Amino acid sequence: MSVEKNDRRNFIGMSFGAVAAVGGIFSLVALKKTWDPLPSVKAAGFTTVDLSPIKDGELYQVEWRKKPIFILKKTADMKNDAKRDVVVGGARYTVCIGLCTHLGCIPSYKGGQFVCACHGGIFDVSGNNIFGPPPRPLDIPPFKIDGTKLVLGETGPEYEKLVSQA
Ligand code: FES
Question: pLDDT at position 166, please?
Protein backbone atom coordinates (compact mmCIF):
# COMPACT_ATOMS: atom_id res chain seq x y z
CA MET A 1 0.00 0.00 0.00
CA SER A 2 1.35 3.44 -0.90
CA VAL A 3 1.91 6.17 1.68
CA GLU A 4 -0.55 8.44 -0.15
CA LYS A 5 -3.38 5.85 0.09
CA ASN A 6 -2.65 5.34 3.77
CA ASP A 7 -2.84 9.11 4.44
CA ARG A 8 -6.17 9.34 2.61
CA ARG A 9 -7.59 6.45 4.62
CA ASN A 10 -6.45 8.06 7.89
CA PHE A 11 -7.97 11.37 6.85
CA ILE A 12 -11.33 9.75 5.96
CA GLY A 13 -11.29 7.82 9.24
CA MET A 14 -10.57 10.94 11.29
CA SER A 15 -13.26 12.94 9.43
CA PHE A 16 -15.84 10.26 10.05
CA GLY A 17 -14.89 10.13 13.74
CA ALA A 18 -15.16 13.91 14.06
CA VAL A 19 -18.63 13.98 12.43
CA ALA A 20 -19.80 11.12 14.69
CA ALA A 21 -18.48 12.92 17.79
CA VAL A 22 -20.24 16.20 16.89
CA GLY A 23 -23.46 14.28 16.14
CA GLY A 24 -23.19 12.53 19.50
CA ILE A 25 -22.78 15.82 21.36
CA PHE A 26 -25.84 17.32 19.60
CA SER A 27 -27.87 14.21 20.46
CA LEU A 28 -26.91 14.48 24.13
CA VAL A 29 -27.85 18.18 24.23
CA ALA A 30 -31.22 17.38 22.58
CA LEU A 31 -31.85 14.54 25.02
CA LYS A 32 -31.07 16.75 28.01
CA LYS A 33 -33.51 19.40 26.73
CA THR A 34 -36.22 16.75 26.42
CA TRP A 35 -35.66 15.50 29.93
CA ASP A 36 -35.37 18.89 31.59
CA PRO A 37 -38.63 20.08 33.10
CA LEU A 38 -40.08 23.34 31.82
CA PRO A 39 -39.12 26.41 33.87
CA SER A 40 -42.71 26.62 35.10
CA VAL A 41 -42.55 23.01 36.30
CA LYS A 42 -39.30 23.71 38.07
CA ALA A 43 -41.11 26.37 40.09
CA ALA A 44 -42.96 23.74 42.10
CA GLY A 45 -45.34 22.81 39.30
CA PHE A 46 -47.04 26.20 39.02
CA THR A 47 -47.85 27.84 35.72
CA THR A 48 -48.96 31.47 35.71
CA VAL A 49 -51.04 32.82 32.84
CA ASP A 50 -51.94 36.49 32.43
CA LEU A 51 -55.54 36.46 31.24
CA SER A 52 -55.71 40.14 30.28
CA PRO A 53 -54.40 39.78 26.66
CA ILE A 54 -56.90 37.00 25.81
CA LYS A 55 -59.63 38.27 23.49
CA ASP A 56 -63.33 37.48 23.69
CA GLY A 57 -64.02 34.09 22.13
CA GLU A 58 -60.30 33.22 21.98
CA LEU A 59 -59.10 29.80 23.08
CA TYR A 60 -55.69 30.06 24.72
CA GLN A 61 -53.73 26.90 25.34
CA VAL A 62 -50.88 26.33 27.80
CA GLU A 63 -49.12 23.29 29.13
CA TRP A 64 -49.24 22.48 32.82
CA ARG A 65 -47.56 19.38 34.21
CA LYS A 66 -47.36 17.95 30.68
CA LYS A 67 -51.10 18.40 30.17
CA PRO A 68 -52.80 20.77 27.73
CA ILE A 69 -54.91 23.38 29.51
CA PHE A 70 -57.69 25.14 27.62
CA ILE A 71 -58.54 28.70 28.62
CA LEU A 72 -61.48 30.09 26.68
CA LYS A 73 -62.62 33.66 27.23
CA LYS A 74 -66.37 33.51 26.80
CA THR A 75 -68.21 36.05 24.70
CA ALA A 76 -71.37 37.73 25.98
CA ASP A 77 -73.58 35.39 23.92
CA MET A 78 -72.00 32.19 25.24
CA LYS A 79 -74.07 30.42 27.89
CA ASN A 80 -73.00 31.10 31.47
CA ASP A 81 -72.30 28.13 33.70
CA ALA A 82 -72.19 29.03 37.40
CA LYS A 83 -70.72 25.62 38.23
CA ARG A 84 -67.77 25.93 35.86
CA ASP A 85 -67.14 29.53 34.84
CA VAL A 86 -64.01 31.16 36.22
CA VAL A 87 -64.83 34.85 36.68
CA VAL A 88 -61.94 37.29 36.56
CA GLY A 89 -62.48 41.05 36.34
CA GLY A 90 -66.08 40.60 35.17
CA ALA A 91 -65.08 38.27 32.31
CA ARG A 92 -65.99 34.60 32.23
CA TYR A 93 -63.54 31.88 31.28
CA THR A 94 -63.75 28.16 30.72
CA VAL A 95 -60.62 26.64 32.24
CA CYS A 96 -60.16 22.91 31.79
CA ILE A 97 -57.67 20.15 31.16
CA GLY A 98 -57.74 19.50 27.42
CA LEU A 99 -57.91 15.72 27.67
CA CYS A 100 -61.11 13.88 26.79
CA THR A 101 -62.59 12.18 29.85
CA HIS A 102 -63.30 9.06 27.78
CA LEU A 103 -59.84 7.82 26.81
CA GLY A 104 -57.67 10.91 26.97
CA CYS A 105 -57.53 12.28 23.40
CA ILE A 106 -57.11 16.02 22.96
CA PRO A 107 -60.38 17.55 21.74
CA SER A 108 -60.34 20.45 19.30
CA TYR A 109 -62.37 23.60 19.62
CA LYS A 110 -64.84 23.97 16.77
CA GLY A 111 -67.89 26.19 16.50
CA GLY A 112 -68.24 26.81 20.23
CA GLN A 113 -67.75 23.16 21.22
CA PHE A 114 -64.87 20.90 22.13
CA VAL A 115 -64.99 17.95 19.75
CA CYS A 116 -63.07 14.74 20.34
CA ALA A 117 -62.19 13.04 17.06
CA CYS A 118 -61.34 9.69 18.66
CA HIS A 119 -64.88 8.45 19.33
CA GLY A 120 -67.03 11.48 18.56
CA GLY A 121 -67.38 12.87 22.08
CA ILE A 122 -68.61 16.48 22.29
CA PHE A 123 -68.31 18.98 25.15
CA ASP A 124 -70.12 22.30 25.26
CA VAL A 125 -68.42 25.69 25.54
CA SER A 126 -68.11 25.22 29.32
CA GLY A 127 -66.56 21.75 28.98
CA ASN A 128 -69.70 19.77 29.89
CA ASN A 129 -70.03 16.41 28.13
CA ILE A 130 -73.09 16.66 25.89
CA PHE A 131 -72.65 13.82 23.38
CA GLY A 132 -70.90 10.48 22.92
CA PRO A 133 -68.91 8.29 25.29
CA PRO A 134 -67.20 10.84 27.61
CA PRO A 135 -68.56 10.02 31.09
CA ARG A 136 -68.03 13.44 32.67
CA PRO A 137 -67.13 17.06 31.88
CA LEU A 138 -63.57 18.09 31.08
CA ASP A 139 -61.64 18.25 34.35
CA ILE A 140 -60.88 21.61 35.92
CA PRO A 141 -57.25 21.91 37.05
CA PRO A 142 -56.50 23.33 40.50
CA PHE A 143 -56.01 27.08 40.16
CA LYS A 144 -55.80 30.32 42.05
CA ILE A 145 -56.65 33.83 40.84
CA ASP A 146 -54.03 36.49 41.45
CA GLY A 147 -55.29 39.82 40.04
CA THR A 148 -55.62 39.19 36.29
CA LYS A 149 -53.44 36.10 36.51
CA LEU A 150 -54.42 32.46 36.70
CA VAL A 151 -51.99 30.36 38.71
CA LEU A 152 -52.35 26.71 37.70
CA GLY A 153 -51.29 24.19 40.32
CA GLU A 154 -52.34 26.23 43.36
CA THR A 155 -55.72 25.84 45.02
CA GLY A 156 -57.55 29.10 45.64
CA PRO A 157 -61.05 29.88 46.96
CA GLU A 158 -62.46 30.24 43.41
CA TYR A 159 -61.40 26.68 42.60
CA GLU A 160 -62.71 25.34 45.93
CA LYS A 161 -66.08 26.97 45.17
CA LEU A 162 -66.34 25.35 41.72
CA VAL A 163 -65.33 21.93 43.05
CA SER A 164 -67.86 22.12 45.87
CA GLN A 165 -70.64 22.85 43.33
CA ALA A 166 -69.67 20.09 40.92
S1 FES B 1 -61.31 9.59 23.72
FE2 FES B 1 -62.68 11.18 23.34
S3 FES B 1 -64.51 10.22 22.76
FE4 FES B 1 -63.16 8.58 23.19
Answer: 74
